[in-house]
Write the structure tokens for this entry.
Amino acid sequence: MEGLFFNIHSGYVEGIVRGYRNSLLTSSNYSNLTQCETLEDLKLQLTPSYGEQLANVASPFPTSTIAAKATDKLVQDFRYLRAQATGALAKFMDFLTYSYMIDNVALLITGTLHERDTKDLLERCHPLGFFEGLPALCVASNIEELYSIVLVETPLAPFFKDNLRSADLDELNIEIVRNTLYKSYLEAFHEFCTTDPELSGTPTAELMSEILGFEADRRAINITLNSFGTELSKSDRKKLYPEIGKLHPEGTLMLSRADDPEAVRLAIEIVGEYRSFFDQGGIGQGGGGIGGGAQKSLEDVFYQKEMELAKDTFTHHFTFAVVYAWLKLQEQEIRNITWIAECIAQNQKDRIGNYISVF
Amino acid sequence: MSGAGNREAVFPTRQSLGIMKAKLKGAETGHSLLKRKSEALTKRFREITRRIDEAKRKMGRVMQIAAFSLAEVTYATGGQIGYQVQESVKAARFRIRSKQENVSGVQLPAFESYITEENNDFGLTGLGRGGQQVQKCRDVYGKAVETLVELASLQTAFVILDDVIKIVNRRVAAIEHVIIPRTENTIKYINSELDELDREEFYRLKKVKNNKKKALDEAEAERAKLKEQQGEQLTISGTGSDEPADILADEEEKDVIF
């Protein structure tokens, strides 16, 4: 039923996205890239996908240029899609940008706290997370102003409102602020996908709740693993776990009590899908050590899984989730290219195969 | 070293000869001491050069690994964390202390690094993703900085030692080729002057003695002559009167000419 009227509003965008998906690099492209000897060769190999952006790059260029140019392309494509989107899809795509906004806002808050030149900060912001009120954040000279005048006007206001007081911004570590925001963002996005009248009961809701659930679980596990040995207390840690996903509630409860990676393993073993993750990827500290060769870290396993989810999404029709999936795939592609470029630039060919390719 | 030209401006006296001899002795002792110092320093210098070579090679490797681990962080976090790390650092975690090391009288600074473990300012960076890579990258860079510190302390020692060795060698050469020959020249000069004086003195004495002898001889001859004349007068006066001639009364006495 939902397929009947989907194309009236969103058919064009979906078509475009599927077109974009087809232009993503495939494994054979990647294997060509890994054969490159110099960045110059790499640039040549990338010409079909990124020719337009890379055409004007002067010859000795750092690897970050490639990443920056690829991101430019991503942003350009995304903006085009966003301009075409209407109704629920527009809102959906806005939600996609919120995660970048969180990063940008966190960056600006850090800058404001340390009284940095904010013009400088704006250049470092991710273009996808740029919104109208963002430069206004620079105007605020202290945290109190920032909170009461500027932040309430941003699209992120609901996430701030429920979770953080103005004093928190000053006292808490910015990483905690960021993760608190991210948690409420994930929850809000999930709620939007499952309860919005246009979306509930559609494949979008189904797919997105799976993807977002995975994202939430991944964050919960990562936060737990990364918080060992830091000043983050267990109760504070618990507050950072999103209340969605397969691990919620028993898994997150166990995670919140975990003291070491072994306890994390026990916690996530209740979910069948995650059980194998720890076996595949060496646990935290040991994983992906220098010269560890092809051994994958837990992060890599998560990325792999995320990419598989994104790939599967494209098997469904009439859903907004493809936009999300495309965005993630494109991001992963940029990371892959950067990784390969780094490996070539630093002459570390033995680990060049650590990229994740799904097509 | 051209003989008389190169000497110190001293009066050729016996006292300054004594001073010069002491000076020569001092210079020779100093020369041998400095020479030994220079040798010790050179030995140390060679060792440091070797260690710098090692450290530089090690640095190359470590920096490569470190740069690569940063690439891993970029891959895992999917973005720039540099700014955040920069802002959240409050106090140095990696510190060095400097101490002095004494190598044959030269103070060489040695840097010693240590890590303040409790200082973990950006422990939460990458909490959501990539945190482990961030921590690992930090450790690797910590090691890289350690190597750099080691290299820095070696390089400083290298520069200082280089200077000191140059100075010491210059001193050794100066003593060997300037001070010692000059002092020797001076001594030679003083000796020759003193000999000269001795000879002059001897000659003068000889002359004086000659003169005196001549005078003495003349005086002797005069006296002999006088005696002779007196003998004649005595015989003449003995015939004229018995009383001795009154010398004091006799006003018309002839002047005595020597």
